[in-house]
Design brief:
Distance between the termini of chain B: 170 Å
Largest sheet of chain A: none
Oligomer: heterodimer
Strand content of chain A: under 5%
Number of helices of chain A: 8
Radius of gyration of chain B: 71 Å
Low-confidence stretches of chain A: none
Strand content of chain B: 5-15%
Structural class of chain B: mainly alpha
Largest interface: A-B, 64 and 52 residues
Mean pLDDT of chain A: 88
Low-confidence stretches of chain B: 1-6, 15-31, 36-43
Structural class of chain A: mainly alpha
Radius of gyration of chain A: 22 Å
Largest sheet of chain B: 2 strands, antiparallel
Helix content of chain B: over 70%
Distance between the termini of chain A: 62 Å
Chain lengths: 252, 209
């Protein structure tokens, strides 16, 4: 018989401060910024005239992915000025997500609420400011009173549009990123604990080989988390581009 | 307030509910870390809320991102993009140069082919002229040869006629002599020479025919 008690969620999020006001989440965020900066700094130092390879090729691939895969698809050529912001957002979120599967770090910084909240509020401010900058007060009208809707329906549509555009967007951005990364982290912890408990089941040696099953699941989920880390960074970035594009050009 | 404390020893996990009021010790969350083998878990509280953002994480995360985004906006991205644009422009220029070189080569090939066609036409003209000249000369030579042959033939025919005439005259004279001698022997009288000659001439003319 084996007793397995899964720890409460807040216990698997508890990290010792490295020094006062600086914990592992802060360390991951700083590392993400430093690694992102180093990647693009080193890439920029390589000779641009020859065919790119190595780190320059990697950095240029990210830039082209943002430009062709996100900006051109959502905002068109006019939105290319947003590439640095979206590139920063994508790189930073990805680099904060990936530590969830890196030994010793083993915690995505976005599985805590602080970073998703900050980034979502930033995006919220950015797309609202962009809307006012491009449309002035017409932004409120185009957001709350969508053209083509019968006037009687504005009684229903306007509050819905207000809630969905100005309240739900930052909330949904936050929860989507945070919940996905936290769920992945909990899954990894679950299968790690289960595997460890089965391997150490001294009372019933027959259970020891069974520990291979959650171990395989753990390995599979570790690979899956790489995909999730990329996917969540991509989703957050493309939604940001859609919101900014919609605010700048409501006709799109 | 009750705090759930999980102690793991060997295979078993024990759960205790500890009241922070009764323990009397202040709980310092910042020094806590989840460790299954924790020996003194009562010093740790329930851990941070998974929902409420922590100010230190917010501050460090925001600071890191803002610095990163500013660096990206004003330094990292422009530098990388400048290199990319420069290379793309150079590739585009290379393509354009290649296109213009290809167009120029095609034009030169067309000119060469036109020159070849002109040269062939010129060569054909020269060959035709030479062939015409040769034909003219051949016809002239043939005409000259034919004329020479005709002259020689006429001369030969004249010579042959003269020889025939001379032979006939000699034969006729001999026949006249023979006939005259034969008549003289037969009649004892020499016949008139002119009559014999005329008779022989008539007989030979009839016989030749």
């Amino acid at each position: 018989m084996i007793a397995l008690e899964f720890p409460p969620i807040n216990e698997i999020l508890r990290w010792k401060d490295l020094f006062p006001t600086f914990n592992k989440i802060a360390l991951i965020a700083v590392l993400a910024a430093v690694i992102g900066t180093l990647i693009f700094l080193l890439a920029g130092n390589k000779d641009a005239k020859v065919a790119p390879k190595g780190i320059r090729n990697f950095a240029e691939s990210i830039v082209e992915f943002i430009e062709n895969g996100i900006v051109m698809q959502t905002m068109g050529r006019d939105g290319l000025g947003w590439t640095p912001f979206l590139l920063s957002l994508f790189s930073f979120i990805y680099l904060c997500n990936v530590p969830g599967i890196i030994p010793f770090l083993q915690m995505p910084a976005t599985a805590r609420m602080a970073l998703p909240v900050f980034l979502s509020l930033l995006v919220w401010v950015v797309f609202i400011v962009t809307g006012f900058k491009h449309q002035g007060l017409g932004y409120i009208k185009s957001s709350l009173f969508p053209p083509g809707v019968p006037k009687a329906l504005y009684i229903l549509v306007t509050p819905i549009e207000f809630i969905s555009t100005f309240l739900v967007r930052p909330f949904s951005l936050t929860v989507r990123l945070f919940a996905n990364m936290l769920a992945g982290h909990i899954l990894l912890v679950t299968f790690g604990l289960l595997s460890e408990a089965l391997f150490q089941a001294k009372g019933n040696p027959a259970l020891i080989p069974v520990g291979v099953l959650p171990l395989f699941m753990l390995i599979f989920l570790t690979g899956f988390e790489v995909l999730v880390a990329f996917l969540q960074a991509y989703i957050f970035t493309i939604l940001t581009a859609v919101y900014i594009g919609g605010a700048a050009h409501p006709e799109h | 307030m009750l705090t759930a404390v999980v102690i793991r020893s060997g295979q078993a996990l024990q759960v205790h509910l500890v009241s922070s009021e009764t323990s009397g010790e202040p709980v310092d969350l910042s020094q806590c870390e989840f460790k299954p083998e924790a020996t003194n878990p009562t010093k740790c509280g329930p851990g941070p809320s998974p929902i409420i953002p922590e100010m230190k994480e917010l501050a460090w995360g925001a600071g890191s991102f803002i610095v990163f985004a500013l660096l990206m906006r004003f330094f990292l991205f422009p530098r990388l993009k400048k290199g990319m644009d420069s290379r793309y422009n150079s590739i585009r220029e290379g393509h354009e140069n290649a296109d213009s070189t290809r167009a120029s080569a095609r034009s030169e090939v067309a000119q060469y082919e036109a020159a070849v066609v002109a040269a062939k036409a010129e060569a054909a003209k020269v060959v035709d002229a030479a062939r015409a000249t040769l034909e003219t000369e051949r016809q002239a030579a043939i005409t000259a040869a034919n004329a020479r042959i005709a002259t020689q033939r006429e001369a030969a025919m004249a010579a042959a006629d003269a020889a025939r005439t001379a032979g006939r005259s000699q034969v006729e004279s001999a026949v006249v002599d023979v006939v005259s001698s034969a008549v003289e022997i037969a009649t004892g009288k020499r016949p008139d020479g002119s009559a014999v000659s005329r008779a022989v001439a008539d007989a030979m003319s009839a016989g030749v025919r």
